[in-house]
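Our consortium's second objective concerns turning raw sequence data into structural hypotheses that experimental partners can test. To show how far this objective has progressed, the report includes one record in full. It was chosen at random from the queue rather than selected for favorable results. The single chain below, 132 residues long, was entered without modification.
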Amino acid sequence: MILSFARNLHFVLFADAVTSAAAGLLMLGGAGILAPLLGLPEPLLRIAGLSLLPFAALVAGVAMRGPVSRKAVMAIAVVNVAWVAGSVLFLLSNWVAPTMLGHAFVLMQALAVALFAALQAMALRRQPGAAM
């Protein structure tokens, strides 16, 4: 299933864009409700949510182009990997003390983003003329 999913790069990019936009809107609009449940600072949730919206728009823009730019997809995958690394480092730091639900929230979104990065890399490898 995952391998056939990765074959359609446009679909992978659209799924990343939609998921990023939904998470961004959730964190931006629901920060006041989420902060005490997750043990995360409300401003951090708002900033993280706000940062996801232009990223989602960029990813959607790349997905809507006819032939997808390999460099653009590589850049998107690199940003996704950086988000995952930042999420893990955030949990390992002593900057905040998330609740158990907060830990799960950060880890689950990091896993989802890691999956998108992996699917993007796999889909790129399957593109004609791929040399990765």
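The partners drew two points from this record. Residues 2-124 form one domain. The mean pLDDT is 90. Both points have been shared with the crystallography group to help prioritize constructs.
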